[in-house]
Amino acid sequence: xxxxxxxxxxxxxxxxxxxxxxxxxxxxxxxxxxxxxxxxxxxxxxxxxxxxxxxxxxxxxxxxxxxxxxxxxxxxxxxxxxxxxxxxxxxxxxxxxxxxxxxxxxxxxxxxxxxxxxxxxxxxxxxxxxxxxxxxxxxxxxxxxxxxxxxxxxxxxxxxxxxxxxxxxxxxxxxxxxxxxxxxxxxxxxxxxxxxxxxxxxxxxxxxxxxxxxxxxxxxxxxxxxxx
Length: 228
Prior knowledge:
Layout: H1 2-14, H2 22-64, H3 68-85, H4 93-136, H5 142-186, H6 191-200, H7 219-222
Helix pairs in contact: 1-2, 1-4, 2-3, 2-4, 2-6, 4-5, 5-6
């Protein structure tokens, strides 16, 4: 939510004063859209496909249970299903580790975008104040002109390239981690996790970047090293 709010503010307030922000704002918008989609799909998967589907199956088995043993078995299966599909079981350690790494990149992106917001809004305010001075006076002092040029130069030569580099690193790392996560889901023995891979990449955005995601689930594919 904070990423979306800052993104909107930068587009409406800072961009008119700093047109050179357009490329980096375009990049942050694309990346934030990918991350928002990922987070929403994971939340949906956990709430509905893990909890609700497992609960519905439990209720179905309880209605047909004829003794206490069957009730206990149904409850045990419910717990095992939730733990397995929520990536909390022993066999899902690698998936959970990868998921946490992806969320770390999301948090890192939030920090980079926050710095971009602070720097861009400060530069926007400075340019707006300079224009106001120019309109209120027939001529500003040479000192004010030099200060404005120096600030603009620092923003263009130092601030922007540094932020663009940080953003590029986060973006590449995030996309690499998501592709690995999708591969891990694809080769999972649990069909619900295979379908999660499809939901996360419904428009084949990552599949187009990694041919392994389009490989049929053959025996060889199930044994490939997804970490490569």
